[in-house]
Amino acid sequence: MKEGAISAAPGVTVPVVWSFLGYHFPAGSMLVGLLACFMVRLFITLDAPGPKRWLLDGIVTGVALLVTAVWIAEQQVDLFAALGTGGMAGALGAGIISFFKRRGQSAIDALDAVIPGKPAIPPEMTATLREIDKHGG
What we know:
Number of strands: 2
Distance between the termini: 68 Å
Strand content: 5-15%
Mean pLDDT: 77
Number of helices: 6
Shape: elongated
Low-confidence stretches: none
Structural class: mainly alpha
Helix content: 55-70%
């Protein structure tokens, strides 16, 4: 069979395959999965009540994007499965943040304390904000 035989056949499409660090994966699936993950994370971050924790959201979004990319590269999923994978990984990021907000508030407070240029918030105001956030408004 000649090299040009595939391109000469009408209606035959060849998916684009990218390579990164020796791993080959379908380009379309990777783009769809990463965009779905990012959009879900962005929607959840912007829709969440209370003060925004951009550093924490950025870290969790990065982890969710990495999980999505690794899963798609490893499983060689199609477009629809990539869409579901990205959306699920992005939504799981919300669960991670909720877990840390409930169980690891002291770790978040310590992280907030080391961010340069952040004004100091009196402890009584922080307690009031947590109560407001806990009651949803």
